[in-house]
What we know:
This protein has helices at 2-12, 17-38, 54-64, 75-93, 110-131, 135-166, 171-176, 189-202, 214-217, 227-252, 265-290, 296-321. By secondary structure, the chain is mainly alpha-helical. It has one domain (71-321). Helix 4 (75-93) runs parallel beside helix 10 (227-252). The chain starts with a helix and ends with a helix.
Amino acid sequence: MIEILLKFIEIIVFPGFIFIGLLSLFYEWIDRKFYAKLQNRVGPLYAGPHGILQPLADFIKLLSKEDIVPEAADKILFTMMPIIFFSLSLLITLNLPITSIHGIISFKGDLIFLVAMLTIISIVVYVSGEVSTSRFATIGAERAILQLLGYEIPFMLSLISIAISSNSITLSEIVSAQKNIWYIFTPNIIAFIIFLITGQAELERIPFDIPEAEQEIVAGWIVEYSGKKLALFRFGRDIETLFIAGLGATLFLGGPLGPVIPGLETLLYTIYFIIKSIFILLILTTIRAIFARLRIDQVLSISWKYFIPLALIQLLIVRVIY
């Protein structure tokens, strides 16, 4: 009975749903604050100390807004898509090894599962835009799928490089393989760079925010969503940002590994994981700050002409070494 209760607390509270939700809002605050500093602005300031509660305030504000469903939209799918997007983002984040080398959800071959879930999330984005019947949303949805064709292959190749290096497609085993040296300090540095760039595209952040380009298509595939539905999309994207940062820390920085004191393993592992994933997040924010938006044809051209060949060369190097 006690074991069941502890497992329930682990899933719901720590390091489960509540912890992940709060941590993702904290990461959004870091992202916005650091992004503002890079642009010589103040950033979030008034909601809480140094504006730390601003992401939560924005989420609550959206929940209180009117929830409008376009008359011509497929009302069932239009209502379900935000829930599915949020649920999938939360599901994949439960796989991250935050408090130990194992996530709450951990099984053989879970890396393949995560790649599949990320692809499904991209499909959800496409469907979300199409069912709203707005021409802006339709264009944004089509851009999202085209962009997926560009970044998905180099993204997967960067993960395959790690799988070859660790001889495993299981996150816990990949973490264990980095006990002596993190993969960022090996020839996998090339895979790390590709992962960062394609991860930015996965999150639709500058310079890959083409599906949501405000100056061109208002807000792209998300333009018709408001109120609670928009809140779920925004919150889901925050959680997905946490996932990409955490996945980068897991694959290239040893995940939660670090010096530990007996009895404090869980606390220290969590601290190490957060520090490493924030490091990844700051790199993603820097990319967002220093680049301008690309065109969709440029994304496809760069991906197929440069990223895919570079990723294949990376695979050959790793195959020879390992």
